[in-house]
Structure prediction request, 114 residues.
Amino acid sequence: VQLQASGGGLVRPGGSLRVSCAASGNTAGLNTMGWYRQAPGKQREWIAYINLDGKRWYADSVKGRFTISRDFGNNWLDLELSSVEVGDTAVYYCYGNWRGSHRWGQGTLVTVSS
Prediction:
């Protein structure tokens, strides 16, 4: 399975942006999917998961501001970022658990700046 992220860009503090991830190839084994991010000079951190039942989990740093959603039929994953802060600047990576193995997209850059 391959994951392709898109939708990053420049957004002002307090604004909104959506990043997306398209899964292709043998997607039948995809289980939980999610998003991670890596800010400059920092380690990659988990921010959200969604499982096959549609249950969601969020890191405290983004809870109430970010929303993860998934289109199971089209193998599409979204992350809606709202009320963004300068500290949300990072490369955002989509993640998929495929039959127990970890799969990653290539990342998309989100820059929050005035």
The two ends are 37 Å apart (CA to CA).
